[in-house]
C-alpha cells in the first residue's frame, strides 16, 4: 500500500466573463466569438435599464477573439484596446481569460 500525497485541485475548465456594450437604441445585441462558433451560436445579451447590454459567459482560459452583433450588424467593443485583423477586412476584439 503506497501513501498518496494530496494534490491541489485542478483549475476550473472555464471562467465567468462579462461582456457589455452601450447601445441604447438597439433592438437586439449578441456577442459572438471563437467561443460561440461565431455567428452560428452567437449569444443574446440582456438590455440593462441604462441602455447598455450585458452577457456573462463561461469561457475557457486563453486568448479569445470576439465582436458584437447589433441589430444584425457587426460592431466593435469600443473599450477593447487589443485587436486582431480578421479575414473580412475588419478587426476582431481580443480578450485574455486567465
CATH topology annotation: Immunoglobulin-like
Give the integer mean of the pLDDT values. 90
What's the CATH class label?
Mainly Beta
Assigned CATH superfamily: Immunoglobulins
Q: Which architecture would the CATH scheme give at its second level? A: Sandwich
Low-confidence segments, ≥5 residues, pLDDT <50? 1-5
User: Percentage of helical residues?
Assistant: under 10%
Overall structural domain count? 1
Please report the number of helical segments: 0
Question: Can you describe what's shown?
Answer:
The chain has a single domain, classed as Sandwich (Immunoglobulin-like), CATH 2.60.40. The N terminus is likely disordered. It is built from no helices and nine strands. It has 98 residues and is mostly beta strands. Strands 2, 3, 6, 7, 8 and 9 form a six-stranded antiparallel sheet that branches. The radius of gyration is 17 Å and the shape is globular.
Protein traits:
single chain, 98 residues, mainly beta, Immunoglobulin-like, 3-stranded antiparallel beta sheet
Summarize the structure.
It contains no helices and nine strands. The chain is an all-beta fold and 98 residues long. Strand 6 and strand 7 (73-75) form a beta hairpin.
What order do the helices and strands come in, and which of them pair?
Layout: E1 15-22, E2 29-33, E3 43-44, E4 46-47, E5 52-59, E6 62-70, E7 73-75, E8 83-85, E9 91-97
Antiparallel strand pairs: 1-5, 2-3, 2-6, 4-5, 6-7, 6-9, 8-9
